[in-house]
């Protein structure tokens, strides 16, 4: 049975091959060669990298709310609302997500799907309707979220791989290693048709222009990929890594960028999938075709 894992990495674009401003150019990870005029389209484990437009043909800097809506719904959301929208989804974007979420489309097809990240009850109570595009996309499909208790059962992962973020905020959750989170996510992928994982720290590092933190995040992300991919059945599973807009690839500015974002694809029918993706709004339709 075909499966798809979507690894959403917030705020990562294809930057210039300049080590002074682009941490990817300085680190030189074979898994994350995100520097223009120098990146290789071939990746470890027979992966392929596709430069992907994130602007949806609209002026201005691409933003999170519209970019994530495009990723998870397969629509040019910025065109639909007439502009790029930052932060969490606006009321108009919530309506788009509720109607077009990939989770809803998969539910209507009788397929199973999950968001692998653990969320807290406090998160839902505090934000109400202002939850993230990832959480809202899952809710639109009627699939139950994974909560902090799932971390204790080794049945969810955190966006930082180790749960350190949650522990610093006072939540009583176990400390994970990157290897443990890779093993947990591989097991979750095996249980469903479609799995979404969200990595958000890259966008935060980009806004803070924190080069050392950015280098550490690249190291963690490449270690995670190096341990995750061998545990997946890549004959049956397609893994797609992509982003909503550029940011951390250019730490000379605090803002997002108009750079293309990387879409990395491994596994089942990855060359076919790569040929269908030139813009972030084409990722959801490609996933649906892979699962059909």
Task: Give an account of the 3D structure.
With 292 residues, this protein is α/β, with parallel strands linked by helices. It has a single domain (3-62, 113-127, 144-286), classed as Alkaline Phosphatase, subunit A. 40% of the residues lie in helices and 14% in strands. It has 14 helices and nine strands. The protein has a seven-stranded mixed sheet with strand order 2-3-9-8-1-7-4, sandwiched between helices. It has a two-stranded parallel ribbon with strand order 5-6. Helix 10 (178-191) crosses helix 12 (211-228) and helix 11 runs antiparallel to helix 12.
Strand content: 5-15%
Strand order of the largest sheet: 2-3-9-8-1-7-4
CATH architecture: 3-Layer(aba) Sandwich
Instruction: Tell me the structural class.
Output: alpha/beta
What do we call the CATH topology?
Answer: Alkaline Phosphatase, subunit A
Number of helices: 14
Biggest pleated-sheet summary: 7 strands, mixed
Morphology call: globular
Which key features would you list for this structure?
14 helices, 9 strands, 292 residues, alpha/beta, seven-stranded mixed β-sheet, two-stranded parallel ribbon, 14% strand, Alkaline Phosphatase, subunit A
Layout of SSEs?
Elements: E1 3-9, H1 23-27, E2 42-43, E3 47-52, H2 64-73, H3 77-81, H4 91-100, H5 102-108, E4 113-115, E5 118-119, H6 121-127, H7 133-140, E6 146-147, H8 148-152, H9 164-168, H10 178-191, E7 194-199, H11 201-208, H12 211-228, E8 237-242, E9 261-267, H13 270-274, H14 283-291
Parallel strand pairs: 1-7, 1-8, 4-7, 5-6
Antiparallel strand pairs: 2-3, 3-9, 8-9
């Amino acid at each position: 049975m075909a499966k798809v894992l979507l690894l959403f990495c917030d705020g990562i674009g294809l930057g210039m091959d300049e080590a002074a401003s682009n941490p990817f150019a300085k680190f030189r990870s074979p898994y994350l060669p995100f520097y223009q005029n120098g990146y290789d389209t071939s990746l470890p484990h027979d992966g392929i990298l596709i430069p992907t437009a994130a602007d949806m043909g609209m002026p201005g800097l691409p933003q999170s709310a519209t970019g994530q809506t495009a990723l998870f719904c397969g629509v040019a959301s910025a065109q639909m609302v007439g502009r790029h929208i930052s932060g969490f989804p606006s009321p108009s974007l919530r309506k788009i997500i509720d109607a077009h979420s990939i989770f809803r489309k998969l539910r209507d097809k009788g397929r199973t799907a999950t968001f692998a990240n653990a969320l807290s009850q406090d998160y839902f109570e505090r934000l109400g309707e202002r939850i993230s595009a990832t959480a809202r996309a899952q809710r639109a499909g009627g699939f139950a979220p994974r909560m902090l208790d799932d971390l204790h059962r080794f049945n969810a992962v955190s966006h930082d791989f180790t749960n350190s973020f949650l522990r610093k905020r006072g939540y009583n959750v176990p400390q994970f290693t990157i290897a443990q989170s890779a093993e947990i996510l591989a097991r979750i992928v095996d249980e469903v048709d479609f799995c979404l994982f969200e990595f958000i720290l890259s966008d935060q590092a980009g806004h803070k222009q924190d080069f050392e933190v950015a280098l550490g995040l690249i190291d963690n992300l490449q270690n995670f990929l190096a341990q995750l991919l061998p545990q997946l059945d890549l004959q049956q599973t397609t893994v797609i890594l992509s982003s909503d807009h550029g940011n951390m690839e250019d730490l000379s500015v605090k803002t997002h960028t108009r750079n293309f974002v990387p879409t990395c694809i491994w596994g089942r029918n990855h060359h076919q999938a790569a040929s269908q993706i030139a813009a972030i709004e084409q990722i959801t339709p490609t996933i649906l075709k892979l699962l059909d």
